[in-house]
Amino acid sequence: MPDKPWIDAIVQVLQESNQSLSYTDIADRVVQQGLRENVGATPANTVNSYIIKSINEGSKLFVRTGRGIYWLSEKINAEENNNSPLSDLEDATNDGEDAQNSTGLINAFGMFWERNWITWSTTPKLLGQQQIGALSVDFFKQIGVYLLYDGSKVVYVGRVIDQPLGRRLFQHTRDRLQGRWNRFSWFGLYPLKEDAENTNVEINDNYQANFDTSVLIETLEALLIEGLEPPQNRRRGDNFKATEFLQVRDPEINRLQVMRYLSAMSDMIPQ
């Protein structure tokens, strides 16, 4: 069975839904329902691009009901008591490009990846996919912060700025931490770049952010170290010079405890 055109597949998913869906959920359902076999490496981005393009070209097919959330205009028009009438819905025309291309400071991340799913070398492949059925992307060149786990316990927090994530993780298979972790999570700053067909997708390591990435990465690392207190980190994060404040117990709590104690003592005295 040939692949449905993306627009047709998106419309079918939304027609079968009883509520608006995020572009990620739409992409998931396209894959799950077998509407397309060829979904590229970033199907969620593809869905978002098609919908935004349709809206920006003046089509009334889709309506944006929230950031990254869409429904069919015909469904909204058919509802007499809809909680989100067309006049109150968000307009994607002016900020469609931002919604499509910007995800904030962190552009990609992976949670609880398995160490033993990787063939370790100085240039290991860190393969991930946006959805089941999507083509895989190699995140070897990513930069950012990462966590090492022993089971479910975080044992180490690290950062990668001047070398790729894959090489830094490889080093941890050879250094003092080599026998202390079996899973890892990572949070990357580099976005993806892809060709027009969404088939050749790779890390955009030429990405130029409008902020100092090294300061951000150092700050993220420091916050994770302070918050998680991983046992294998030998020091606090660099450039973390904020003043720490120790919690003070509210005096009212002490007063209430004394009042309860006195009340309890009074109840014990024979009348």
Write the layout of secondary structure elements.
Blueprint: H1 6-15, E1 21-22, H2 23-32, H3 43-56, E2 62-66, E3 69-72, H4 73-78, H5 96-101, E4 108-114, E5 127-128, E6 137-138, E7 144-150, E8 153-160, H6 165-171, E9 183-188, E10 192-194, E11 201-203, H7 213-228, H8 251-268
Antiparallel strand pairs: 1-3, 2-3, 4-9, 5-6, 7-8, 7-9, 10-11
Strand proportion, as a percent range, falls in 15-25%
Number of strands: 11
| Distance between the first and last residues' Cα | 89 Å
Strand order of the largest sheet: 4-9-7-8
The low-confidence parts are 84-88, 92-102
Shape: extended
Q: Mean pLDDT across all residues, rounded?
A: 85
Q: What is the chains' assembly state? A: single chain
- Percent of residues in helices comes to 25-40%
Number of helices: 8
Structural class: alpha+beta
Give me the strand/helix succession. HEHHEEHHEEEEEHEEEHH
Q: Sketch the major β-sheet.
A: 4 strands, antiparallel
Count of structural domains: 2
Q: Roughly how many Å is the radius of gyration?
A: 25 Å
Feature tags:
four-stranded antiparallel sheet; 2 domains; 32% helix; three-stranded antiparallel sheet; Arc Repressor Mutant, subunit A; extended
Description:
This protein is of the alpha+beta class and 271 residues long. It folds into two domains: 6-101, Arc Repressor Mutant, subunit A (Orthogonal Bundle); 108-228, no CATH class. Helices cover 32% and strands 18% of the residues. It has eight helices and eleven strands. The protein has helices at 6-15, 23-32, 43-56, 73-78, 96-101, 165-171, 213-228, 251-268; strands spanning 21-22, 62-66, 69-72, 108-114, 127-128, 137-138, 144-150, 153-160, 183-188, 192-194, 201-203. The strands form four sheets. A four-stranded antiparallel β-sheet has the order 4-9-7-8. It has a three-stranded antiparallel β-sheet with strand order 1-3-2. Helix 1 packs across helix 2. The radius of gyration is 25 Å and the shape is extended.
